[in-house]
Design goal:
There is one protein chain. By secondary structure, the chain is an alpha+beta fold. The chain has a single domain, classed as Alpha-D-Glucose-1,6-Bisphosphate, Chain A, domain 4 (2-Layer Sandwich), CATH 3.30.530.20. Helices cover about 20% and strands about 35% of the residues. It contains three helices and seven strands. It has a seven-stranded antiparallel sheet with strand order 1-7-6-5-4-3-2. The radius of gyration is 15 Å and the shape is globular. The protein starts with 5 loop residues before the first strand and ends in a 28-residue tail after the last helix.
Length: about 160
Amino acid sequence: MPTDPVAASVFVQAPPERVFEYFTRPEAIVRWMGDYALLEPKPDGRFTLDVQGAPVRGRYLELEPPHRLLISWGYAGSERLPPGASTVEVRLIAQPGGTLVELEHRDLPEEEIEGHASGWTHYLARLQVTVAKGDAGPDPGMPSARPASASKNSKPAQTPP
């Protein structure tokens, strides 16, 4: 049964052309989300991102620089949300003084919705800081449930003290 998409948004003080790079350049994306990235920003190009030990794997499905990206999303080794099982649409809307970043994560299993809603809110806030200051600092992790890739032997993400 289809679920409602997870939606999140943030205003970033930079033009869409600059914000777009934070979703397509490995050295830029790891400043706000992830520890490692291998990105091939072209149709059917690889989207590989390790976030707090969670191996996100997918593909760039559509790119409309600098206004829109559609990326398949899942976790290596996950049965609940395998690579490419869901899609993330990012829309970058030019506004006076910056860009409105609107994100929709679709096709998530019911048990993944809460964690991804919390995660996208957390990471878009880090994007906002990164664009303004150049770096959001060390990622304290999300204050919610473990990702689909986490096993019972995995440690949960650390939350800030």
